[in-house]
Amino acid sequence: MNDNPFILEPYRSKELFCDREEETSRLIEDVENGRNVTLISPRRLGKTGLILRTFDEIASRKLKIKTVYADISSASNLDDFIRLLSEAVVSVLKENSKISKFFRSLGGIRPLISYDPVTGQPQVSITWQSSEDKAMTLKSLLTYLEGSGTTVLVAIDEFQQIREFQDVNMEALLRTYIQPLGNVHFIFSGSRKHVMSDMFTNAKSPFYESTIFMNLGKLDKAVYSRFITDMFNKGGKEIEPSDIEYIIEWTEDYTFYTQALCNTVFMISGDKVGRNDVNNAIVRILESNQDRFLEIRRLLTAQQWNVLTAVAREGSVSKPTAASFLRKHALPSGASVLRAINSLVDKEMLLSTTTPDGLTSYSVYNVFLSKYLKNI
Length: 376
Ligand SMILES: Nc1ncnc2c1ncn2[C@@H]1O[C@H](COP(=O)(O)OP(=O)(O)OP(=O)(O)O)[C@@H](O)[C@H]1O
Ligand SMILES: [Mg+2]
What we know:
By secondary structure, the chain is of the alpha/beta class. It folds into two domains: 21-215, P-loop containing nucleotide triphosphate hydrolases (Rossmann fold, 3-Layer(aba) Sandwich), CATH 3.40.50.300; 300-376, Winged helix-like DNA-binding domain superfamily/Winged helix DNA-binding domain (Arc Repressor Mutant, subunit A, Orthogonal Bundle). 50% of the residues lie in helices and 12% in strands. It is built from 15 helices and nine strands. The strands form three sheets. A five-stranded parallel β-sheet has the order 2-5-6-1-7, with helices on both faces. It has a two-stranded antiparallel sheet with strand order 3-4. Strand 8 and strand 9 form a beta hairpin. Helix 3 runs parallel beside helix 5 and helix 11 packs across helix 15 (367-374). The radius of gyration is 23 Å and the shape is globular. Bound molecules: adenosine-5'-triphosphate and magnesium ion. The site of adenosine-5'-triphosphate has 20 residues, from helix 2 and helix 10. Magnesium ion binds at residues 47-48, 157.
């Protein structure tokens, strides 16, 4: 049995999930008012958790909304997309008779279903004759949801992935099929900000201005710190506010990293948590990640690694080509640093954040890696 209250998966229950009350209510309000939402945040901040929290809230309020969750991060073409969406629908339908009816509604194709022996998750396989058939299947799938008799909320997680599809213009196709739907509403969630923004705010993109935006931020520090205290207390442990503050500061109140540190502190501490427990947990985490960090080093050029280290040492850098930054970290020309920065952003090693007044700054995406780099 696992009694550690600090979950490391996106969502388990309301009790083990911190806040996001306002966002949850807003998402429910949006679906009730027929709006589609684009949900954006950097990775590991809590998008998937928020979606699942919202679905849970919809269920516990007994609202007449069916919820479908599809993670399309592994999709590389239209086939994959249809398969993942079908599997998501099948796992909601559960009953065999309903699944058969759903499959029949997809037209001439004969999907096969099996269940993963370990997770029990449904796996659907479909064979098509032509690519027109595929598009028709997608259309039929959405028509099936539209005619299901209730409002349906479909969350497509890692939505930016559709830009990688080579076989179809997925945005145009989806937009065409989604536009006429009145009962099916969507949450399009993703972390690649520039791709997501381009899809929804570029006048040339099919999804232009078809959704409203939710930019998910960090949890409120005071609320998160109360939550952490509660979780330790419920687990029979005491912890000083100053130690919680230290945990939150060290992990830059970045949800995944804060949860991970709290999880380890909880695991290694006794009834009374002390600063030494926190420090020991930090050492453990950095040690257990070391192989991964060395692997990253191997995959980067020396220049990229040096720039990454320099950014980590600064915490956040807004002028990476400034002479003072180059000199301080013994970096060569601004142009080559800029190249390294761009490719590190592309590899999701660096996070670029732009403030409302247009100032862009860079920080190391992975907080643990950032701390590791600071110390070497
Ligand atoms: N409100 C919350 N309360 C407690 N833990 C949370 C909360 N939100 C997120 N987490 C923690 O942070 C981790 C990352 O959250 P989640 O997977 O939802 O992020 P994400 O934005 O979907 O990330 P990605 O873009 O990589 O898919 C979760 O595994 C969980 O440990
Ligand atoms: Mg996610």
